[in-house]
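A reminder before we start the practical. When you read a complex entry, don't treat the lines as separate problems. The point of joint prediction is that each chain is placed relative to the others, so the output describes one connected object in space. Small molecules and nucleic acid strands, if listed, are placed in the same frame. In the example below there are two entries. Take a minute to note the order of the lines before looking further.
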Amino acid sequence: MPRSLATWNVNSLKVRLPHLLDWLESVSPDVVCLQELKCDDAAVPRAEIEAAGYHVISHGQKTYNGVAILSRQAPAEIVRNIPGLSDPQSRVIAATIEDTRVVCAYFPNGQAVGSDKFAYKLEWLSALTDYMRGELAHHPRLVLAGDFNIAPEERDAHPDWKEDLLVSPPEREAFSSLRALGLEDAFRHFEQSNRSYSWWDYRRNAYRRNFGLRIDHILVSPPLAAQLESCAVDTSPRERERPSDHAPVIARFV
DNA sequence: ATGCCACACCTTGTGTGA
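Here is the predicted structure of the whole assembly.
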């Protein structure tokens, strides 16, 4: 089984490749779920990632979206997108790595509560929830990791966050529905510092002020929850030059 | 009230993100 699994929205794989390679070398996670590649599959820097010791599978898209799974062990049963959902946006890739089913997802942003894109977000969330219900029936050891674009509780958003988006009741109810399938938020399995976040706006010195949200999550099924050893946000890549606006989250298992 | 920043795009502004 993988002993460690991370998720990271890199906001352009091309720009963030040096950050990613350095981080892989220093942290050496067994599985990494990446989001917002912003490139198509042909542009994924496969050779560099393989040279770092990882298999790489991707579901890319030019300009927007795009997801990938990096893994020390070979992936099997690869699925791209949510089965049965007609969606031109590349937001999901899933694979079985050893004995564990890994679903990597870049959830829609939603733009503004009540907008067309918000309606798409809720429809997409409903489809994902149905998909996860079926996956859990077939794979007792399941991870859903990615950029959820939802801060699930009050404590997951800075008190001065004024927008409804990412914290609205329908978004939080959708997150609860995923948890209700029997998935645990790995981060909340442990004591954490107050104001722990995974994303900070590039503007207005948000990172320096820790004006952020916790929207990147690792949800795990009960057998994996029972084996959790730790789960933490790694802010070190956010402190580099030209960082992603997101920091990676990493879970370790005994 | 907007842009504040970053990224991609057959760029010289626009769409999108969170």
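Discuss with your neighbour: The radius of gyration of chain A is 17 Å. What might explain this?
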